[in-house]
């Protein structure tokens, strides 16, 4: 392209390029691309001119060339497919009529801050530095399979397309620093499956909308730092199955809404910490199956009516609240009775020395297990529960023993049973006689020397039977308690 073919606006850019100077076409410094006023010829550039400039324009000795444009309208598609650029590209607060094609492109840095564009295809590319897309308004951003040496900035960006394809593709993308996107607004799916982030992910105060479908698909995501989605609103499913997050997955103060589906799919994950605190109740299912956490920070009010907790492991549980507030979460498991979930909760309370909570969780576990047994098992379990609370209410045994001892002693004091051998029986003592009936392993010589008649014989049989049941449940409960230690 000859220099004589350029418009005055294009000539300004062409002459500024070798020295890396910025060309600002805005009437005011705070003018933005969405309301850029008059897009006349004095601020219009052809994409073909920019392509020629980046690919073949000569550099000046002693100068560092770069494309730096602000507030321009760029007509036509900018196609740099497979181009190898050694100059940074900054086209901020610009308005693009056509798509930006950077498939397979290699460049030092890309800055489209505050621009409006129908779409960017930066797939299977390599960017040595950062990709700056903050404040952009775009239909679709495709960065799949791209290696980015620095950070990706999407702060306050707005993405949305009419069809059902993902509006932001980061699948298999490798980011050498942070993914910085607080205030991001999307209408459609974000796909980040298999992506890796060497820094942290920030989606605080974002609004991700894809009702009835997946809003964020980040299966097998790897993040060396934290993933923060605080004070956000996600309408659609969040998929993190198999993710590896070394730091914290923080969903505090965030609305997760996917009614009738899985609002948070975080199964088979490895997380440093998971925070689900101080937000509205999750609308949909919470799936944490087979995940491994160092710490779980969850408020009971946030937990939905449907959960999957099978094989979930965590070393610490916070905040420390009574077990009565934690147990309903285990009752909501869609897999039914999951013994492992109760054992994990027990271990968390045991680590902080809350013995009362430990006993309460174990008692709840036995009661839940009882509902899975056949009728005879449920009957025996009910006996153990009523008598000694499955061994976790040992004082109940003493109360039952004293109550039965008082009843038997009073009854036999009013009516002494007849001695089996007159003159050989020891003096009758109603208290020790009742103890002989109640305690099968002890003998005070009373039961074998006296024989009650009529209704008192039935009472004696009832005391013997009750004593055996009480002894069996106590032994079962003590054995269960010792085995837990």
In short:
The protein is an alpha/beta fold. Helix content is about 25%, strand content about 30%. The model has no long low-confidence stretch (mean pLDDT about 90).
What key attributes describe this structure?
485 residues; alpha/beta; six-stranded parallel barrel; 9 helices
Q: Give the helix tally.
A: 9
Q: Separation of termini?
A: 83 Å
Compute the gyration radius: what is it? 37 Å
pLDDT < 50 runs, ≥5 residues: none
Mean pLDDT: 88
Instruction: Assign an overall shape.
Output: rod-shaped
Question: Helicity, in percent?
Answer: 25-40%
Which helices and strands, and how do they pair?
Elements: H1 8-16, E1 22-24, E2 44-46, H2 47-56, E3 67-70, E4 73-75, E5 78-79, E6 89-92, E7 95-96, E8 100-101, E9 106-107, E10 110-111, E11 116-121, E12 126-127, E13 131-132, E14 137-142, E15 147-148, E16 152-153, E17 158-160, E18 168-169, E19 174-175, E20 179-180, E21 185-187, E22 190-191, E23 196-197, E24 201-202, E25 207-217, E26 222-223, E27 227-228, E28 233-239, E29 244-250, E30 255-265, E31 270-276, E32 283-287, E33 292-298, E34 306-308, E35 313-318, H3 323-331, H4 339-351, H5 355-370, H6 375-388, H7 394-414, E36 418-419, H8 430-438, E37 450-451, H9 455-484
Parallel strand pairs: 1-3, 2-4, 3-6, 4-7, 5-8, 6-10, 8-11, 9-12, 10-13, 11-14, 12-15, 13-16, 14-17, 14-18, 15-19, 16-20, 17-21, 18-22, 19-23, 20-24, 21-25, 22-25, 23-26, 24-27, 25-28, 26-29, 27-29, 28-30, 29-31, 30-32, 31-33, 32-34, 33-35
Antiparallel strand pairs: 36-37
Helix pairs in contact: 3-4, 3-5, 4-5, 5-6, 6-9, 7-8, 7-9
């Amino acid at each position: 392209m000859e220099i004589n073919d350029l418009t005055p606006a294009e000539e300004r850019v062409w002459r500024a390029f070798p020295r890396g100077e910025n060309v600002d076409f805005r009437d005011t410094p705070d003018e933005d691309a969405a309301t850029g006023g008059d897009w006349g010829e004095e601020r219009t550039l052809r994409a073909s001119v920019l392509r020629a400039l980046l690919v073949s324009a000569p550099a000046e000795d002693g100068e560092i060339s770069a494309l730096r444009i602000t507030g321009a309208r760029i007509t036509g598609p900018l196609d740099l497919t497979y181009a190898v650029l050694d100059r940074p590209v900054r086209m901020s607060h610009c308005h693009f009529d056509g798509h930006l094609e950077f498939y397979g492109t290699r460049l030092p840095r890309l800055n489209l801050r505050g621009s409006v564009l129908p779409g960017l295809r930066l797939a299977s590319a390599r960017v040595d530095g950062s990709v700056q897309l903050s404040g952009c308004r775009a239909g679709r951003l495709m960065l799949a399979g791209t290696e980015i040496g620095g950070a990706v900035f999407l702060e306050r960006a707005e993405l949305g397309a009419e069809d059902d394809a993902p509006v932001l593709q980061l699948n298999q993308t490798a980011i050498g620093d942070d993914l910085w996107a607080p205030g991001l607004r999307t209408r459609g799916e974000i796909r980040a499956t298999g992506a890796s982030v060497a820094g942290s992910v920030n989606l605080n105060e974002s609004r991700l909308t894809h009702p009835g479908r997946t809003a964020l698909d980040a299966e097998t995501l790897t993040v060396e730092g934290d993933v923060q989605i605080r004070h956000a609103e996600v309408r659609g499913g969040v998929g993190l199955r198999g993710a590896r997050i070394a730091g914290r997955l923080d969903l505090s103060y965030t609305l997760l809404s996917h009614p009738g589906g899985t609002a948070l799919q975080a199964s088979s994950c490895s997380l440093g910490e998971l925070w689900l605190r101080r937000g509205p109740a999750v609308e949909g299912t919470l799936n944490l199956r087979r995940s491994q956490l160092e710490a779980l920070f969850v408020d009971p009010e946030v937990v939905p009516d449907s959960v999957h907790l099978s094989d979930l492991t965590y070393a610490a549980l916070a905040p420390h609240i009574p077990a009565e507030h934690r147990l309903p979460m285990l009752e909501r498991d869609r897999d039914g009775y999951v013994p492992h979930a109760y054992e994990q909760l027990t271990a968390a309370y045991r680590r902080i020395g809350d013995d009362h909570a430990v006993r309460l969780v174990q008692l709840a576990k036995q009661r839940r297990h009882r509902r899975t047994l056949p009728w005879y098992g449920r009957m025996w379990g009910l006996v153990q529960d009523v008598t000694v609370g499955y061994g976790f209410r040992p004082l109940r045994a003493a109360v039952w023993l004293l109550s039965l001892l008082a009843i038997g002693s009073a009854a036999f004091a009013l009516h002494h049973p007849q001695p089996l051998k007159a003159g050989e029986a020891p003096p009758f003592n109603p208290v020790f006689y009742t103890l002989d009936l109640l305690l099968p392993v002890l003998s005070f010589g009373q039961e074998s020397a006296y024989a009650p008649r009529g209704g008192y014989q039935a009472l004696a049989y009832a005391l013997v039977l009750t004593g055996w049941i009480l002894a069996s449940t106590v032994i079962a409960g003590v054995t269960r308690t010792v085995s837990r230690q």
